[in-house]
Design a protein that fits this description.
Layout lengths: L13 E2 L4 E3 L6 H8 L14 H7 L10 E6 L2 E10 L12 E7 L8 H16 L5 E6 L3 H9 L3 E8 L2 E8 L8
Parallel strand pairs: 5-6
Antiparallel strand pairs: 1-2, 2-3, 3-4, 4-5, 6-8, 7-8
Bound molecules: coenzyme A (COA).
Length: 180
């Protein structure tokens, strides 16, 4: 994965009804470690990283690039939405396209926050890179992620085997509605 290319950050944090999407800050470090070390979050993502290793290796200010959003609720990070360029994607239908990823802390699941945040990030992308389709890869066994993908307007391109499991590749056309 690479960054999106020539796009700038939104000039200000993006506000939704309940959330704020913004650049990562040094104060998010503990939440990043919680997110990346969580076995529950990584059930369908190849397993978590070690908390000790993250404590040692994670930069003081988590990496920033346009499209890497921290999602904040009431002043604290609850998750991350990532829009990257799927340069090295193994499926030709996805290679080089804008790619959506999302990770939320388990305590924030089941409230519609991921859907709200992803819709806002996709709206930002639609303005920043008009006409671009967006792809998304998730394990088909990841029921929450599959429901979220459908809610956001992604439709199936194909299923394929990789990383020891069936993967679902979805695509969202540039005209699909995201606003609620
Ligand atoms: C995938 C993931 C982001 C989904 O989170 P989520 O909270 O289930 O997703 P949503 O924001 O769509 O919330 C959905 C639920 O909130 C409920 N909800 C409660 N209040 C709501 C509200 N005000 N508005 C909308 N939905 C609401 C919905 O009923 C819905 O439940 P359902 O999906 O069982 O019908 C989360 O499980 C996660 O972070 N997983 C680990 C990382 C991962 O696997 N990522 C995928 C790889 S890209």
């Amino acid at each position: 994965m690479d960054d999106l290319g020539p796009v700038a950050w939104p000039p200000a944090p993006i506000g939704t009804d309940r959330l704020v999407l913004r650049v990562p800050e040094a104060r998010d470090r503990a939440a990043f470690i919680e997110l990346l070390a969580s076995p529950e979050v990584h059930t369908y993502l190849g397993g978590p990283r070690s908390r000790d290793e993250l404590e040692r290796e994670l930069a003081e200010v988590p990496e920033r690039w346009p499209g890497s959003f921290v999602v904040e609720l009431d002043g604290s990070m609850i998750g991350q939405v990532l829009l990257r360029r799927a340069t090295g994607h193994r499926r030709p239908a996805a290679a080089g396209k804008a790619d959506l990823g999302y990770l939320f802390l388990p305590r924030a699941w089941g409230c519609g926050y991921a859907a709200e945040a992803c819709a806002a990030a996709l709206d930002w992308l639609a303005d920043a890179l008009p006409g671009e389709p967006v792809v998304l890869t998730t394990q088909s066994a990841n029921a929450g992620s599959m429901r979220l993908a459908a809610k956001l307007g992604f439709t199936e391109v194909e299923r394929f085997e990789a990383w020891g499991a069936e993967q679902w590749l979805g695509m969202r056309s540039p005209v699909a509605p995201t606003r609620h």
